[in-house]
Amino acid sequence: MEYKDALDMHLKNRGKLEVISKVRVETKEDLSMAYTPGVADVCRLVAEHPEKADDYTIRGRTVAVVSDGSAVLGLGNIGPFGAMPVMEGKSLLFKEFAGVDSFPICLATQDPAEIIKVVKYLVPTFGGINLEDISAPRCFEIEDALQDIGIPVMHDDQHGTAVVVMAAMINSAKVAGKSMGEMTVAVSGAGAAGVAVSKILLGVNVDDPSYKPVKNLIVCDSKGIISRNRKDMHPYKYELAKITNKENKDGSLADAMSGADAFIGLSAPGIVSEEMVRGMAPNSIVFAMANPVPEIMPDKAKEAGAKVVGTGRSDFPNQINNVLGFPGIFRGTFDAKAKKITPRMKVAAAKAIAACVENPTADRVIPPALDKSVAERVAEAVKQAAIAEGVAQVKE
Fold first, then answer.
1. What is the pTM of this model?
2. Marked catalytic residue, from 90, 178, 339, 351
3. How much is the CA Rg of the chain, to the nearest whole Å?
4. Range list of H helices, 146-291
5. Is there a catalytic annotation at residue 35?
6. Known catalytic residue: 340?
7. Biggest distance spanned by C-alpha atoms of the chain
């Protein structure tokens, strides 16, 4: 695909979305039913019983994809206009993969308090909020402040990534002959994705007795290992230091990877050498997900002894792509009429994705990104987890 092809496609179609009517308006009766005067009865009903908006309007299955454009893909802080094509694409994926209606909302502010306020104002219109491409650490503050607004809110750069990484880890551990509960994992990157991946692998707030978290996890930022000895970190990194790095070791990324069973890269291109992979435990797992250039190229990682290698790219085996997660997660949340997306629901999504690969191999630990059957299985797993946890409003 040429760069110009993408430009031509967007220009030709003037974007990727349009509004399609569910109801035809061809007669006076049609008009009076859909609009005035017939709509007045619907208005009165929903005004008196707001919870019925999910049944009588589009709200119950519609997601707002909200961004401030501060951390767009690999492009950085390009603002809300630059973010719009990505958010529009995200809405397209919601519809294509899970039948969920969605609309991009790009905000002309990067003030967390303003973003929180705006999202709260959207509650009457949308049944869920997908936060997207908002930079850390602001994304943590924003998401945390929106967990009790009555509709599910999820920052996909955090939890969509975490769910799909966990799914790939479940199957990679099988291929490598390792037990998740006995693994030491090194993570490069302490931004939105790095924090969420670390928490889900450690089972933070996962109310599921069957889940076995990894034994030890060591996170690195650009200055090295995050430990409780450091005095140069943002508060959220200190919180991360409390639950990771059991031995409280200091050092470099190479030190973190030494003897580790798995490496998860969510950081920068080319920062992992073959020597660093050779220093890992036998049958190691390497997820080098920096895009477009991974932390280490797959062939180099395999030559250095890695048993399983995954990236974020579509031109190598084991593409770890969020599209396997977020459409089904929101669909399942809507099906359950849950007011939030809990850690247990995210773990259920990860297990469902992993189960889509019945016999994992080194080159296939995760379903293809374009497998649209995954979303249905994820949705059902998320729905059942919400019911089991008691956060669903529907009963099985």
1. 0.95
2. 90
3. 22
4. 156-176, 192-202, 235-243, 253-257, 274-278
5. yes
6. no
7. 75
User: At residue 396, does pLDDT exceed 80?
Assistant: no
Residue 342 amino acid letter: T
Query: Amino acid letter at 210?
Result: S
CA distances from 297 to 270, 271, 277, 289, 302 (A): 8, 10, 11, 10, 9
pLDDT of residue 129: 98
CATH 3.40.50.720 describes domain 162-396 = yes
The rounded distance, in Å, linking the Cα atoms of 171 and 71 is: 30
CATH fold match for the domains 3-151 and 162-396: yes
- 197 pLDDT more than 60: yes
Per-residue b or e along 165-197, where b marks 16 or more CB atoms closer than 10 Å to that residue's CB = bbbbbbbbbbbbebebeebbbbbbbbbbbbbbb
- What is each CA distance from 154 to 6, 107, 145, 333, in whole angstroms? 29, 17, 11, 11
Q: In the chain, where are the structural domains located?
A: 3-151, 162-396
Q: Is domain 3-151 annotated with CATH 3.30.470.20? A: no
The answer on pLDDT for 1 being more than 80 is no
16, 28, 35, 307: the active-site residue: 35
List alpha helices for the chain, DSSP H: 3-13, 28-34, 39-48, 53-56, 79-98, 112-121, 138-145, 156-176, 192-202, 235-243, 253-257, 274-278, 298-303, 326-336, 343-355, 373-389
d(Cα 370, Cα 36) in Å, to the nearest integer? 43
Tell me the average pLDDT across 335-357: 97
Find residue 63's DSSP bridge partners: 102, 128
Rounded to an integer, what distance in angstroms lies between the CA atom of residue 293 and that of residue 275? 19
The whole-number average pLDDT for the span 339-348 is 96
CB atoms within 10 A of CB 353: 27
